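Ligand-bound model needed. tryptophan.
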Amino acid sequence: MKNRENWNSRLGFILAASGSAVGLGNIWKFPTMVAENGGAAFTLIYLICIFVVGLSILLAELIIGRKTQLSAVGAYKKLSKKKMWVFNGFLGTLSADVILSFYVVVGGWTLKYSFLSLFGFLNNLNSLTQSESIFNNFISLRFEPLFWQSSFMLITIFVIINGIKNGIEKWSKIMMPFIIILLIILAIRGLLLDGSVEGLKFLFNPKFDLITPHSIVLALGHSFFTLSLGMGTMVAYGSYLNNKQNLLMSGIWIIVLDTFIALVAGIAIFTTVFALGSEPQEGAGFIFTVLPIIFNQLIGGQLWSTVFFTLLFMAALTSSISLLEVVTSYFVDERKWSRKKSTIIFGGIIIIVGMFCSLSLGGGLNISPFKNITFFNLMDLISSKYMLPIGGLLVSLFIIFEFKVSNFIKELNHKNSFFILNKKFVLLIFTISSIVVGFILINEIYSLLSGSSIIGNK
Ligand code: TRP
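Prediction:
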C-alpha cells in the first residue's frame, strides 16, 4: 500500500485542525448566541461543555483516525468487531455533505462582501434599512449568489486537490495567523473607541436569568459545531498524524485557539457596535447588515470592513476544506478513487445541493418538505441539532464499549505528557458526555414529535 501522506509538522497539524474548528461558527454564530443567552453566563456554560464533552470527543476522534490511518468509515471497520459502528462513519460522511451545502452559501456571501468592501461599494451605506435591503436583495437573487458560492467551492476544491501537505496544511499555515492577527487588530480598534466598555459588559456581564435549559442545549450543540466534532472531520485529520505526537496537548491547543478566537471576535464586534451607539440584533444577517454601517462610521471604514470580511472568508474556507476532506478521504480510502476525481465529483454535487439552499432564501425554489422552514435552515437544523450530537454520542459510546478506555489512555499517554490519566476519571468523563448528549437528543426528538419539550419551552 502506498504510504499515507502525513502532516509536515506539529504546528501545521494544529493550525489545520484549529482552522477547521475556527469558522463561521466562531465569528458568525457564537457572538450572537452569547448576546441572546445571558452573556458571560452562557460563555461559562459553553466553556464547561467545550472542556469536558468537547475535549474528550475531540481526542477520541483524533485517536480513532491516528490508530487506523484511515478516514471514518474505514477506521470504524478496522477497529470494531460489530459492524454497526461503521454506521457512524457513514453518518459522518453524510453530515459533511449536509453542512457543506449551506456552509458554501454563506462562504459565498463572505466572498461577495469582501469584494464589495474592497472596491468601496459599501462606503455609502448609512442606514440599517438600506444595508438590510442590499443584503436581503442579494441573498434572494436567483443567479448572483450561485456565482459566489460556486467560486467559494472552487477555491475549496483547489485546496483539497493539492492534498494534505501542499493543500490543507500549506493554506492553513498562511491563513490562520492572518485570521488571528487581523481579529486582534479589530478587537484593539474596538476597545480604543469611546464607549466600548458597554460592549464588554454586554459580552461578559453574566445574566443568569437569561439562562434556560435551552441555552444549555445550545451551548452543547455549539461546542460540537465549533470544534468540528461528530462527523469524522477530526478522524480524517487524525489519520494523517503519526505516533510521535502528544495528542492531549495538541487537543488542548486546538480548543484554546478556537475559544480564544470566538471571544476575540465577540470583543471586536460588540465593542464596535456599542461604541457607535448601535444595538446588536438577532439573526444570521447581523454581520452582513449591521457591521458594514458600523464600519462606515469609523475612520478608514473601507479598510476595516475589507479586513473583517476577508478574515471571515478565510475562516470559512479553512473549515469548508475540512468538510470536503471528509468526503474526499472516504472515496480515496474506501473506493480507491483518485483524490482529484473524488474531490471534483463531490465538490460538484455539493455545489448543486448548495444551490437548492441558496434558492430557498427567496430565489423562488424551496424544496423543504416542511414548508414554513427554508431548505437552507433545514440543512443547518438537521445537522447541528441531530446529526452532530448523534455522531458525537456514538463516538463516546464507541470508546466506552468497543475501543475501551484503557486503550484510549494508552494512545494518549505520551512520554512527554505532564498529565497522568486515571482510568476511572476518563470513564467518568465519557459517561457524563454520553448521558448529557443522549439526554439532549432525546429531548430534541421528543419536542420534534410532540411540539413541547421535556425541559420546558424557551
Ligand atoms: N467548526 C466550523 C465552524 O465553527 C464548522 C465545521 C467545519 C464543522 N467542519 C465541521 C462543524 C465538522 C461540524 C462538523 O464554523
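The chain has one domain: 10-450.
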